[in-house]
TrEMBL record:
GO terms for cellular component: mitochondrion. Its cofactor is Mg(2+). This is Malic enzyme N-terminal domain-containing protein. InterPro entries: Aminoacid_DH-like_N_sf, Malic_N_dom, Malic_N_dom_sf, Malic_OxRdtase. Keywords: Oxidoreductase. PANTHER family: MALIC ENZYME-RELATED, NADP-DEPENDENT MALIC ENZYME.
Length: 213
């Protein structure tokens, strides 16, 4: 019984992450969603309009960065559709200059950027070197589709933009770069893999920060 329940939840999460309110009625019926979501079936243009209005309502670029990070986890198709249609507006929010501000605060905002059940990439420490196969297998199991990455961007966080050593907070850079590569080159976002090598930091600001991850 639990396996069937898990399978149903996985299907709902996978389809919801790609369709959201555009999910057809027959699909909602098959997934036993009747009464659990609004009945309106929208097209992707209306989804994008709502998302863009929400984005523009945020008062700071960091708030916009946080909204976009959460949107990508909730509905990856909608995220990239909006990015492509508003490229000039959104690129400075997902990469420079806003990503620098996000990296400086990454340990403080990380739990609010992505749902906890969503993997954003690999965080590899020195303690993981003897069990790297387990780390990779954990990542594969966390993905909604069983596909392997084709491209990765890796950082050790020691030289982030012009900000210097940010340690694990540098994860925002490979995430941002791969979003740009996906939008510009048409890559499958499920085949991109951000990696941070968390080998420590010499930055006193973060060594003295109780919230540093």
């Amino acid at each position: 019984m639990s396996e069937a329940g898990d399978s149903r939840r996985n299907s709902i999460e996978l389809i919801g992450a790609k369709a959201g309110t555009a999910m057809p009625a027959e699909m909602r019926q098959a997934l036993h969603l009747r009464g659990l979501v609004p009945t309106s079936i929208e097209n992707f243009s209306k989804q994008e309009l709502r998302a863009y209005q929400q984005l523009m309502s945020k008062s700071t670029n960091l708030e916009k960065y946080q909204f976009l990070a959460a949107l990508r986890c909730l509905n990856v198709n909608l995220f990239f559709r909006m990015l492509l249609n508003h490229f000039r507006d959104i690129v400075p929010l997902i990469y420079t200059p806003t990503v620098g501000e996000a990296c400086l605060s990454y340990s403080h905002i990380y739990p609010f950027l992505y749902p906890f059940r969503t993997s954003v990439g690999l965080f590899i420490t020195l303690d993981d070197t003897d069990c790297i196969d387990t780390v990779i297998e954990n990542y594969r199991r966390s993905m909604p589709e069983p596909i392997d990455p084709e491209i990765t961007v890796i950082t050790d966080g020691s030289r982030i933009l012009g900000l210097g050593d940010l340690g694990i907070n540098g994860m925002g850079i490979p995430i941002g770069k791969l979003q740009l590569y996906t939008a510009a080159a048409g890559l499958n976002p499920g085949r991109t893999l951000p990696i941070v090598l968390d080998f420590g930091t010499n930055n006193e600001r973060y060594l003295n920060d109780p919230l540093y991850l």
